[in-house]
Amino acid sequence: MEAAKIREMDISELQKKLSEYREELFNLRFQHSIGQLKNTARIPQVKKSIARILTIMREKQLELENGRS
To answer: Given CB 3.0 to 4.6 Å as the disulfide criterion, which of 9, 22, 32, 42 pairs with 37?
Structure first.
């Protein structure tokens, strides 16, 4: 998922998407461990998406904190 699309989401949408990606990563790792995963390149893609979401969530949190000060 692109960072621009992620930035348009609000916090609740980001949390939902983060949960979905974490579940997908769990399933991918499980499939990989039992030898059923065909597209192994998907694991790093999902990890990067999770990192992007966490980064943007932190940015939004800092913006809110700085706005209050």
So the answer is: 32
**Residue 17 to residue 26: CA distance in whole angstroms:** 14
Query: Would you state the pLDDT for residue 18?
Result: 97
Mean of per-residue pLDDT scores for the chain = 94
Distance CA 29, CA 12 (A): 26
Handedness of CA 5, 11, 13, 19 (dihedral sign): positive
22 contact partners, CB below 8 Å, separation of at least 6: 50
The string of DSSP codes covering 22-42 is HHHHHHHHHHHHTT--S-TTH
Domains belonging to the chain, first-starting first, are 3-68 (1.10.287.310)
**pLDDT for residue 16 is more than 90:** yes
